[in-house]
Amino acid sequence: MLSRTADHLYWMARYIERAENMARVLDVTYNMSLVPNAAESEAALWLPALEISGNVEAYERDYFQRDNDEYTAAGVIHYLAMDENNPSSIYNSLRSARENAHAVRVAMTSETWENINALWLEFSQFIGQDLAKNGLREFCDWVKARSHLFRGVCFGTMLRDDAFSFVRLGTFIERADNTARLLDVKYHLLLPEQEEIGGAVDYYEWSAVLRSVSAFQAYQKIYSDTIEPWRVAELLVLRRDMPRSLHACFDEITPILEQLSGARTTECKRMAGELHAKLRFGKMRDIFQHGLHEFLDEFVKSNNKLGAEIHKTFFSIAT
User: What is the DSSP string of 218-265?
Assistant: First the structure.
């Protein structure tokens, strides 16, 4: 497969997954805003959504003068969902996904291309809408549903060849990054500095996190008990049977890189194997002892390095 084609397919999938996960960040923050005393101020509630996506400085530059140097719900929601100048907004993620798909539409099934094209056309109904006042939950649900549909169409219509492998690789690299960041939202938002990680937290706050990754029912089925922080973390980090967990992501990433074999993939496979081993053999008590935030921060950095190595190995010829 040509490097340029592989590059477009990989990033098409990453952008779709990125849009979904940005919707999940907005969703979990909105759900937490409904919990009494979830944060002392509007700024304390919405700032973490910017912090985990690395958008604080850009937001301050573009919005502070307008909003009297404040982090407001309306400003953050618009910036992360609709801002054309924010490269990681849902608007730009879906637009970039469509552009990448259009560039290589002959390399995918007609159903896959039609799905992405329809997604972009449907998105226009939300442009100009004040999501902070009305419709944020419906918008987030729509983004998630269209992302699910995209994956279903890919899985149900594409040959199991290199094109399919790069789509799946992009999906799970992005999902691993965003699951770690989403779990870190909870840490940034609700854990006071003086409190140890894993201390007592409110049931409804943790359940909002679970619901935002479609894991609330899974938690109840597995643990059948009160929601505990370490169990939520275990479910989203170490449980390989939880589809959005870090472990489940690397159960997919590692064999994909093995399948895309060759001498040039050695470093990619080594880096993926190292992360996979930490998740396969890691223990939750050790992670909490080290610090959940520290673990997640290290994971995000390592996952980003793997993404850079994948680009260097497979796509650098295309640039």
Answer: HHHHHH-S---HHHHHHHHHT-TTSTTSHHHHHHHHHHHHHHS-SGGG
